[in-house]
Amino acid sequence: MTAAPYNYNYIFKYIIIGDMGVGKSCLLHQFTEKKFMANCPHTIGVEFGTRIIEVDDKKIKLQIWDTAGQERFRAVTRSYYRGAAGALMVYDITRRSTYNHLSSWLTDTRNLTNPSTVIFLIGNKSDLESTREVTYEEAKEFADENGLMFLEASAMTGQNVEEAFLETARKIYQNIQEGRLDLNASESGVQHRPSQPSRPSLSNEAANAKDQCSC
Amino acid sequence: MDAHTPGYYYPPKLRIGQQDLKCRQGCGFYGNTQFDGLCSKCFRERNDKQRKKLKACEDEAAQSSGASAAIGTVERKSPQHLLSLGRSKSKKETEEARNAHTMPKKKFTVPAVLQKTLKSKLPAVAQQQPARVPSATENQFVLQLRQLRIPDEAKRKLKSEIQHLDYEICKYINSHSNLNIDELSELVQNAYTRFADIVHNDARFEIATNEDRDSAIDFFEKVVMTQNHNLLFSPYFTTDEECDVQVQKRIRQLSWITAKHLDCSIDEVNAEARDLVYNAISELVGIDSYYSPQEKLLCTVRCCRHIFELLKRATGGPASADDFLPALIFVVLKANPVRLHSNINFVNRFTNASRVMSGEGGYYFTNLCSAITFIETLNAESLSLGAEEFATLMSGEQAYSTPWESALLACESLHLISENMKCMEQLQKRNSTISTGIQDFERELIEFQREVTEKVDAAIAKAPLNLLPIKTPVHLISQARAHLTLEVATGHYQTNLLQSSLSTAGKAKALSTPDDSLLHPSHTLALKDTSINSMGRLSPLQQTAQQDQLFASPIFNYTPFDAVSLLEDSSENGDMPLLSTEFQGGLTNINYDFDLSDQSGENSAADESKLNLDEFDPLAQPNLVEANNLELGTTRGSLIDSEVPVSNVLLPSPLKPEVTNYRGFSNFNIPSISCNTGDSSSLSQDTNEAKAGVDSLK
Question: In this structure, which topology does domain B240-399 adopt according to CATH?
């Protein structure tokens, strides 16, 4: 039997949260399709929000769950958080209200994810400098206080978008290396897939691995 | 109840494949549910066999029906046996009652069913019971098992694991007095984990690829879930069924909700959008028709893809989750799928946990769960409605007709009305855009006009147009006269005239001798003129102003013959040797003589020559041109460009030919000739100057 190794070693689940209209979907789209939402035939529809990246020579498949940001859906979208390895919390630098809601988003995230979940704060629309309402310093301070990683990005220009996603992945990978993340727990949001199936030593970690292709 | 009694216990399927209709025996004839999915022939054969066995089985049947207490001791094939017993128990007597419908005698039925349940679902066991008829689902599983690319030992292991889990589930349901669905769920989840462990670590699976291992795990889950669907789906010891009814009621109450309430971009009256919504709805409803969680998830995925497609078309770009969730809620509300809660719970409890937490299926399933939670908990606030309005709508006091409802009710006319209303709205919108566009355009036009006028005024103010009266300096007149007298000597013009008069050989010419014509040019011309009167439009009666003569010159009105050749002519040859002299002469006369024809008889040549000189003194031209520099810019430009020597300005005036001296004038350049031959370049110069003269006259 020919061993067809997976083209990735890990699967990380991300969620993107934040108020409506802060550009969550645009960031996701920018990252997975590498372009701003301009007449692209498919977004989540086909291979919904996934992209394979490389960290430390390990191929990692990022699976990104976009969420609805409307206030009225807040209560019902809790189940999205289950098993997320990374959470990207997005606000719009041109709308202070979206920044003000961050603390409630953060509370949700902390409550509904496991402690090792990496939370990354993104100030989107950094290209609209002229209408900025939230300064970089202010947000940076908030991020530092709460132990979040922080970047200002622009889904429009693509500036810092890659960085935000990759940094999160690096941090998660680091957590795995340091043993802070239990790969066997389905809530960890990480699935390990041995790239060489013949090696039983790796297979231990793969006990939890499930087939993703059936979807 | 499950795979081995398909005739009675299959939940209704949305799609029935051709093979499902065929006899399960595989004889090619169509089967009948009345005959247990067999064709009449196979059914009869089987019945005969069973009847023969009946006696032998009776003991066993009696034993097994009373054996529920002594289960633990049975070996190899007992799990199945037990299982079936447990199931028949859990379903109480309904099963037998149903059997009674299809089977003629109850007494006969019970053993038959039991006998069947004795046969294993899996081929390994089934082979031991040749009389058994495998169900279509079972056959499918057997086929799939064969297709799995794992070693045979691994397949055997897989089989035994499946049987083991079957047994476990059965045991749990039968042995516990107070059943807890969460415990059962845990049991199944643990079994999944264990099996995954086996698949990844067991030596028998060692050579399998990861994909094959995954498909083995999938297969495991699928088989167990399908087989135990009846036990695990909406079990009697849970409140799933009540929840189903509640949700269904709730959704029915919320039937007045439109896409607008949910802020989603579904165009309810657009036919294309409606089709997609229908597709999504049928997928959503179809979830209930599948057994395994995987298939249910797949169904959810298909449903959600339709919604994404819909949103993509509605918004003209990729949809976001902000749009997606409301749309999904809308679809769920309009679909009102049966056994919604049971299905959700079934998947949540009994599918591999990671399946609902990651992957596309998990994502959409999570969305679906959120949508249902939203529907269950929604209130006036979440729909941005007033509390009172919400209450009246919920209680049904306030009728709320929506385009979607009307479409669903198949009330064509109502639907048509809403569609037309929408159409009218669009038309109105378009109409208003057009009228505003018209207004804008009008405004622009006025503005443009104003601007143009302004500019023109400004330009005029800057450079006013002053037509100065012609002034001929006195000293120039004398000069011109001197020049003209000088030219008489050359006599060129005269000879032309002579020649022409000779060669034309008109009746008039015959009379006049060369001398005559030489001496009385005016007379000759007059004669000639009469002969050429046939040209019509150059009426000899045209004796009014000189400008008339200038402009009405026949050649001015005719298109040039050949501009290029004529240009060459005029530039190269002053004397026009290319043209026959006869022609030259003749045409020269045509041009300039008409008025003379009338006047020449009466007026003396001297008078006229004087008059001509005053008015058309070519030497006045340069001044004139300068004076009119601004106004005649272009004209002047052309004059200069043509590089016509200044002497060209000295055109033979229409009246000139009378002056005998004039012959020699065109020594250098013969404008009269070129005029006659239609030379446009020289002509235009002539005209320009003539015009200038006229202008100045005015």
Answer: Glutathione S-transferase Yfyf (Class Pi); Chain A, domain 2 (1.20.1050)
